[in-house]
Amino acid sequence: MPTRQSRRRAPGEPPHVALVIQTSMAYGRRILEGVARYARENGPWSFYLEPRSRQDPFPAWLDSWDGDGIILSVSRPGGSAPSRTPTVDLDDQGGRPHVQSDHRAIGALAAEHLLERGFRRFAFFGYPGFRWSAANFEGFAARVRREGFECRLYRGGQTASWGHQIPSWEEEMETASRWIASLPRPLGLMACNDFRGVQALEACRRAGVSVPEEVAVVGADDDPIACDLANPALSSVVPDCRTIGYEAAARLDRMMRGERIPRPAVVPPLGVAVRRSSEFTAIEDPCLAEALRYIREHACRGIRVDDVLESVAVSRSKLQRLFREELGRTIHETIARERIRRVERLLAETELDYEDVARRSGFAYLGYMSTVFRRATGLTPAAYRQQHSRARSPDAAS
How many helices (H) and strands (E) does the chain have? Predict the structure, then answer.
């Protein structure tokens, strides 16, 4: 643990910088990547870093620490970091950060994504008490209102703190599921972050509302753990955290040289990572929505068109017409498309052998799967796996 000491940096000695940034979620870790990139390009710097979660209190040792600079993303009750030490504040939960995500732009981008998919009804699932959540809502609601639509706001939540989100999860599920069940559908819903998005998906499940056929859900932060554990996988707005970290380090560098603190900066998001929770267009017809839900859940179990027809109370001719008019494809083509998507995910995300991939995707024979897959994608299963394995490798991502 650092302790206060009288130290003077020797000529040529790198500045000693404390990074008080949460490391438990992707948002903070990506900020650290941006800081590291700046230090590689302009350093070297010497860092003090300890693992932190959102729940950890303000570190007591910071009051007596005698380093050269601090980058801080945690709140301090009743105050801020020691004024004698150059500090860049990134706390956007309630403070006045020097650099932060453009939370209104994040909300607007989520709205744009849902508008492009044809949704005309909207809702926002946020946290009371957090300014960044309120800014997400403001951007989201303003964008849909520009198109003449309204946005429902969830008002049943308890005032949240990072240390009390999980204990209130089950207590809030009943309220949240009733709220979602009461909303008109199809509905485009934004959650203020990905963990709130996982909670929204669970509320939909408990309310008997299918995602994405009846409610499309978009989160924020693109945290891979939350998004991939969600069922279905959660779409999310991608903040530019690495630029936040890089800009924070650049500002701290100037401050440590005695320059004036630049004006606060907001960093726009990068885009939307589209996953299953919002990949469908808005479906007004409840029979079509139910048929799509059935196909999504059962396509890889070897179902046929007749099985889909038995799942909904509508004639074959009407359902085929709805598929062609609304989706531009037949029921059979929709089943095949779902199976191909399953093949793609298994090839890209697992090391299963090709026989297992075929079986788990609803194909009786590997040869038939290979033929259908190549016709749909232009690649053999082996070529697709090789291509996407390269895309996931550390060298390809750098």
Answer: 15, 12
